[in-house]
Amino acid sequence: MSALPNRSIALLAAALFVVTPLLGGCERQPATTQDEAAAPKAAAAGIADPALWPKAASHGLKNAETEAFVEQLLAKMSLEEKVGQMVQGDTSSVRPEDLRKYPLGSILAGGSSPPLGAPDRSPAGPWVETARAYRAVSLEQREGHVPIPVMFGIDAVHGNNNVIGAVIFPHNIGLGAANDPGLIQRIGAATAAETAAAGFDWAFGPTLAVPQNDGWGRAYEGYSEDPDLVRRYAGPMVRGLQGEPGASLPLQQGHVASSPKHFLGDGGTKDGMDQGDNLSSEAELIRIHAAGYPAAIEAGAMTVMASFSSWQGVKMHGNKSLLTDVLKGRMGFDGFVVGDWNGHGQIPGCSNENCAATFNAGLDMAMAPDSWKGVYESLLAQARSGEVPMARIDDAVRRILRVKHRLGLFDSARPWEGKAGVIGAPEHRAVAREAVRKSLVLLKNNGGVLPIKPSAKVLVAGSGADDIGQQSGGWTLSWQGTGNQRSDFPNAQTIFEGLREALAAAGGQAELGIDGTFKQRPDVAIVVYGETPYAEMAGDLQTLEFQPGEKQDLALLRKLKAQGIPVVSVFLSGRPLWVNPELNASDAFVAAWLPGTEGGGIADVLVAGADGKPRHDFHGRLSFSWPRTAAQLELNKGQPDYEPLFALGHGLDYGSTTTLPVLPEVSGVNAATTNAGNYYRRGRTPPPWRLALREDGKATVVEGNRTASASGALSLEAVDANGLQEGGRRLRWNGSGEAEAAIIGSADAGPLDLQRQANADMVLQVQYRVDAAPKGPVTMAMGCAGADDAPCRGTVDVTALLKAAPVGQWRTAKIRLTCFRKAGTDMARVDEPFVLGTAAALDLSFAEVRLVADPTDAVCPGQ
Prior knowledge:
Mean pLDDT: 91
Strand content: 15-25%
Largest sheet: 7 strands, antiparallel
């Protein structure tokens, strides 16, 4: 649900000033052109008319030699081997020996999936050995088997972000601000080299989404809200990853297959919901969301990944008009279409293990990470029965074999695999550092506090000052980018380390004080802070206010300002956010996005040389519009009533004389109200809520995917749920003492008033799975702040409910709010909407905790 300002906020917003943009080449067409208005409508919702779409043609995939080779292989293959080529399994669930019975065409390692016999955060060696192990079985000479190498894919989305020691480039939102297609191609080439060196054949990128809602948790994976910039980047990134189209044996030259994604429209879903529904007209879908694909296809893209999302109610994994008629037909795509993580299972009538509809729609390879065996067996039966025609099977396999041959998989030479000196190469680090420099956008520099004088004493503060994980963001050594240590980045440089090095070289000095404390009074403070790492789903927002209800970083800025210290904000984020209070508390403000491992690139621009002159000027310009209020989640140039704080293309440099006035500090959104009924869903607790484990009066706030209570009586880990990777949390009580898991509110947000909801017979809906039945009493509670701040809670006994649940099956319980009220909760002052506790052994997972209006099947446990 999008948060909208009320009338008074809207009137206030209309009265605010508009900062004049400094255009940097990011132009958008008006929201609806005359041609679009006149375009014929599709015959039915979700069905595309190919004649309306741009023509394109694949280059470098088809030639006589390859086609003859493929036809010879097809003639030798059994149906079982053809079907196997159309299925991809994950390293976490497929073993090399499985390929003897199930001849899968591809293996992937998902966001947090490990190499064989090693943790996910591994150097290149274990990955190389893993690739070789799968490949060896696929190429065995055995009776009834046609040796065909598996294709090993990975999400190398900002460098080979899966391998310890690899260079991590800025996320795409920062690269969009750089506005440099040539740089993009060099980044693609460096990423390909480091990916090939680790044994992978295939990078799942580039992302060609055109995000239209900044609340979307994948916004940082898009280069821009401007489709023209995405179009200009698509070809260079594909050529960087794959080499020039038609080049001989790209893999042997240090290149890998690309996979532009996600086809189509994931950047324009309703309310910015990940995996949601894009309701755009066909003309808008073409003009905005398809902008990068013709260029990517022309550049020789070998694969395209289908989107989780829908268009006008039709899931992309089952949309034949787009996958077959448009992509393969009108756009002339000769490679193959791969699915996303069990995306086929979201098609109505399908499951993760069985979906003829997706293959008949044009999907050539199903990404079935943990469902591969079921997909293989069901597809084999469907091929035999004719439900999936043999012509469709042969077309899919022909496309897969074509890509494998053109890529170089059938050539036994792998000169880049395991090649020394490639992972973390100095020349790759230099490209990444250049990208960091060019991505920085200067939004404020009142009084010319930047550049920092070479002789200055500088305090470097803030949570992101010395944290590679935070400055790199999601998709970094793990799916969500959490759980990383400094030792996981041996070739990297934190922002503090880069500043210290630059200042020392110029005659100044830097002191690290994360919390703002210092030994020697500084001339200036550089405070590095921003969003903590997240990836898809977990990053979805309903308000663009930064730290709603908490404002710890704002407090640090104000503390330093109160001491008369000039403050420079270096803001780390995966999207533009409403930061008016932080802008006001800063003398200078730099949008640094998610810069990756080369923190020295920030010092290159912020710190002057020994001569006092800037070593590098600010080059970056906004590739996303910056919001005036926290409610402007959909803010794109060309739309009606476009009124940003900073427009698309804005950015200052050292020659600018603009002074930013004091900004209004009314956000337009109350975070507690926005998320009043949404406590845990789709893998996250949205602000102002947090998940905590409590034991012996001590609370441990959950920040990553693995946490334990103070004495270890209760532990937590992430699990897959509702078809979403790491969409749930598993709780294990070991029976050693009383402990509880609680969703708690921020102290600054204040308690909720749920009296009306209780009176309307609303319910607390909990989706859960009992993994091991409870060995003793279990309670569920709603906590509240009572009169005179005395704690209070209403508790219900859910022991019988949990004992009756079949082990290992997801179920949904609806608990009436009136149950908690009757048990003693003051519904006017709820500050803990969900508390689950026991002293006994219990193993339970949950995937959703929220208020719903439908009381059907609601209960009052224990009453």
